[in-house]
Write a structure and sequence with these properties.
Length: 497
């Protein structure tokens, strides 16, 4: 009896292993029949249904040939298709007879879209099974050149690609729908504090010029070393995360109403270094004092208070260095799905790698990276701030204010970016030109230093949907903090902006 039970159990296991893949041959036949009777049925499914979605090989081939004929302006009927499909035996029925039967038994064209959805959904389920089986097989094999982390990221990439392929929300939309969305955005901006259509950076003059950080925009923040790129990015990111407010929707999800959830890819600094810098910015205690422990009691209180605030804000850091654009994309999608996401910051662009092999053209690789970041911003509907280094040619000019031509390695940065910002501090360059004390040149230099001390410029080199120009900010070098500049301290407007 025990042996019989064991045999039954084994047979059940074998049966489970050989389960048939999900399919609906009847739906495939009904759809193809409808198309052969009336080619208009094809246009009801052509924007989402592809030949590979069909389970039966012959059905796949019939749909593929019908697609080619209809796109060429010809008629797809059992007679016109017969020429391209040959004449093979289908269990006592020829291909010609099978096509004639499909047309004869066809139902109304009205149901064509429903049949198409059924076929597409079943194909998606089969692909899910394939991805799952592949994950299991690779995990069992444990190949030397593929770590578990690589396997996870590959599975995420394949699943996301499958999810995007199966979407039905593409195609044309009525202009009135787009108009309604634009009016809703304007209404939200009118109601929002600061009257901004985008997310407030916490810097008043920047918000006034940019209208806030706009969803789907790629913002490139560039500058030479020591200008304060990372500081400005962390200031903006912290301001947005600190201002985060949300409200619960009817479906139970949370909608951001102010500020936002921030994802920060710190490719150059560790999370600890970045946290130390932000604590210094927010507490007003210089980071070198924090590292050395050279603090008074009130300094320590400021630090602990800043840390307490930081613990409660939605600010997420990924400190993995040298990741590829594909890995960054996968992790950003994961954060959006699991925690939510309203702003993404990458510090910095040149530390990302593309999918191309080593030794290939770096310009092409950077083009892939910037194109990928712009696509990611649009896909996730969040602003992406990507920091970028500038070429050394800036140092060779008398006026060292950056220009678009100074962006390193590729014109794709300028091309793909919706906004290009340059950080510039005249004080940094003038400080290195200190003349001999007591001379006339020294007093002149000192007067110039006093005029520009603690001031920085953010130059808008490009803005796809707004003006270019210069924003003046205050900069506290000891705590690397950018703040709004008092009106009486603002630099005079430069001509030609």
């Amino acid at each position: 009896m025990a042996q019989a039970n064991a045999l039954i159990a084994r047979l059940e296991t074998v049966e489970q292993q050989y389960r048939a893949a999900p399919s609906n041959i009847d739906a495939e036949q009904a759809l193809l029949g409808a198309i052969l009777v009336n080619n208009d049925a094809y246009y009801r499914v052509s924007d989402f249904l592809a030949p590979e979605h069909f389970f039966e090989d012959l059905h796949r081939r019939v749909y593929e040939v019908a697609t080619t004929l209809i796109k060429q302006g010809k008629v797809a009927t059992p007679i016109t298709l017969k020429t391209f499909l040959g004449d093979q035996d289908l269990g006592g029925v020829t291909v010609s007879q099978y096509l004639a039967r499909l047309a004869a038994e066809a139902t109304t064209v009205i149901n064509a879209e429903d049949y198409g959805r059924t076929i597409s959904d079943l194909a998606t389920r089969r692909n899910l099974i394939n991805i799952g089986e592949s994950m299991v097989n690779v995990a069992y094999d444990a190949p030397v050149d593929s770590s578990p982390r690589d396997q996870i990221e590959d599975a995420e990439r394949r699943l996301y690609a499958l999810a995007e392929t199966g979407r039905y929300d593409g195609g044309f939309q009525r202009f009135s729908d787009a108009l309604t969305a634009a009016i809703d955005m304007a209404a939200a901006a009118y109601k929002r504090e600061g009257k901004l259509s985008g997310i407030s950076s916490g810097l008043v003059d920047m918000d006034r010029m940019l209208g806030g950080l706009q969803p789907s925009d790629l913002v490139v923040l560039a500058g030479r070393p020591a200008m304060g790129k990372t500081s400005l990015a962390t200031n903006i990111a912290f301001n947005i995360a600190k201002a985060y407010e949300s409200e619960k929707q009817q479906d139970g999800t949370l909608k951001t109403v102010n500020g936002g959830i921030v994802g920060f890819f710190s490719l150059e600094m560790s999370a600890e270094q970045l946290a130390t810098r932000i604590i210094a910015e927010q507490s007003g205690v210089p980071s070198y004092k924090i590292r050395r422990g050279d603090m008074r009691e009130d300094d320590f209180y400021k630090i602990t208070e800043a840390a307490r605030v930081m613990q409660s804000i939605p600010f997420y850091i990924d400190q993995t260095g040298g990741i590829s654009i594909a890995q960054l994309t996968a992790r950003a999608r994961r954060l959006k799905r699991q925690r939510g996401l309203d702003l993404l910051v990458i510090d910095y662009l040149q530390l990302l790698s593309g999918s191309s092999k080593k030794g290939e053209n770096r310009v092409q690789e950077l083009t892939e990276i910037t194109t990928g970041l712009k696509a990611l911003a649009k896909e996730l509907a969040v602003p992406v701030i990507a920091l970028s280094q500038l070429s050394r040619q800036v140092e060779n000019r008398d006026d060292k204010r950056p220009q678009l031509s100074d962006l390193r390695e590729s014109g794709s940065i300028e091309q793909d970016a919706d906004v290009v910002l340059f950080v510039y501090r005249e004080e940094y360059y003038l400080k290195n030109k200190e003349p001999k004390p007591g001379t006339e040149e020294y007093f002149k230099w000192q007067a110039e230093m006093d005029q520009i001390h603690g001031k920085a410029e953010v130059i808008i080199g490009k803005q796809r949907h707004g003006p270019t120009g210069t924003i003046q900010l205050a900069f506290q070098a000891d705590v690397t903090r950018f703040t709004n500049l008092a009106d009486e301290d603002k630099l005079p407007e430069r001509m030609g902006d």
